[in-house]
Amino acid sequence: MKIKGLILGLSVLFSSMLGAAYFEQINNYSSSKCRKWSPKRFRNVKSYITAGVNNAKSFGFNYAIPITRKGVDYVWCALVPERAVNNRSCYGAKIDYKSDRPFGAFANQKAIANKYDVQFADLEDQLQTYYEYTKRLIHEEQIDRPNVGVVLELLSRYYFQELTNMYPKNRYTIASGVAYHKTASQRTIGELDIIIYNNSTCEVEVIGESKAASHKSMRGALRKAKGQLRRFRNFIQDYI
Fold first, then answer.
1. Beta strands in the chain (DSSP E)
2. pLDDT per residue over 65-106, tens digit each?
3. Long-range contacts of range 116-125, CB-CB < 8 Å, 24 or more positions apart?
4. What's residue 13's pLDDT?
5. Are the CB atoms for 79 and 64 separated by under 8 Å?
6. Helix, strand, coil share (%) of the chain residues, nearest 5
7. Which of 10, 23, 186, 206 sits a CA distance of 20 to 30 A from 159?
8. pLDDT tens for residues 169-200?
9. Cα separation of 58 and 235, whole Å?
């Protein structure tokens, strides 16, 4: 009986430890209805996806956002001009940092083709649209010192909801920047780039990783993205 009691006690202790999974919202994204992240919100994840820049699907990514790797750099450069002046990624970009339309040098250049309802007049119009969208979200969510990875994370929201309407706003919300830990006091295990959840139930249906990789590093980026998704999948299985 003592052994059975000890086993039961250890089982309860172990379960309580597992129940302490901790999620940290890194930026200031918030939802009036679905306020807290918890393991139960991840019980019914339907798919794990990867998203990259233009042509990423040819390397095995699930989705390719119509922007080049350089294009991501240019949007980032325009968003953080104080850092851009000393960053080699921005050299030669011909961005007018003092203008409300910083991509004038790209006027009349062909936009990255897409098959969706939203069409762009030229490359300037396309970059400007991406710039304004990411700038608004960075301001709303008070994202501190965004990098090119954050730019593509935010553009994935534009892709899934504005460009394709794959996950309509009236039914879904897309969040990002959520770190997960075993407990609040333990180190970060990983961070989620794309979290698509149902507005009615607050349950997460899709988890994704986005990678702003260059052509030569695309395969390695895909391997890393799949590894990150697998790590979260293994992590959350212990809590649901």
1. 22-25, 47-52, 63-64, 172-175, 178-181, 190-192, 194-198, 204-211
2. 999 999 999 999 999 999 998 899 999 889 999 999 999 999
3. 116/163, 116/164, 117/165, 118/162, 118/163
4. 44
5. no
6. 45, 15, 40
7. 23
8. 999 999 999 999 998 889 999 999 999 999 99
9. 29
Query: Which residues does 50 contact at the CB level (< 8 Å), separation at least 6?
Result: 56, 60, 61, 62, 63, 208, 209, 210, 211, 222, 225, 226, 229
Confidence at residue 102, expressed as pLDDT on a 0 to 100 scale: 97
Q: What is the DSSP letter of 124?
A: H
pLDDT band at 1 (very low <50, low <70, confident <90, very high): very low
In 154-190, which positions are buried (b, 16+ CB within 10 angstroms) versus exposed (e)? bbbbbbbbebbeebeeeebbbbbbbbbbbeeeeeeeb
- CA of 157: how far to CAs of 49, 154, 217, 226, in Å? 13, 5, 23, 19
Q: Contact 153/177 with Cβ under 8 angstroms?
A: yes
Contact call for residues 138 and 79 (beta carbons, < 8 A): yes
